[in-house]
Amino acid sequence: MRIVLLYVLIEAAALIALGSWIGLGPTLLVLLAGSVLGLLLARREGMRAAQALATAVQRGRLAHAEATDGLLVALGGVLLFLPGLVTDVLGLALVFPPTRALARRRLVNAAERAAPDLRTARIRQGVTIVEGETVPGPDFGRPSRPAVHGGPVIDGEVVEPGERRG
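^ that's the sequence the OP posted. Answer follows.
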């Protein structure tokens, strides 16, 4: 209930400030133009996001950016649908591609901080992962080589899926 009251107070203050600055008629035109422009832009960007998501899925890529874009466009559309100047500005910011990219970056970074496995999944996208472990111990009769990052190096071979080891 408090958030609704806060929303109403912020929107009323913004409308009063804009109305006192440019007048009632132009304020109503700004609200109407922002909503119409925003909803048209949301429709176009929503279709683009859906097509990009479908393309990424067809190609077998991790589609985190496309899915996040779709989510942000949908949220922007909801904000544009709500009455008010502040929600229109926030909605336009989420629908407009350059500002949406900034919001996406912040959202992805926050999600990766909350769940570090998300970052690992994004980094590993499109590469073959060989699960294994490094084992400290004797050098098994071979001279040790320094690793690129200073850790131990384990010699081995990569076996592609479907390939037989002999």
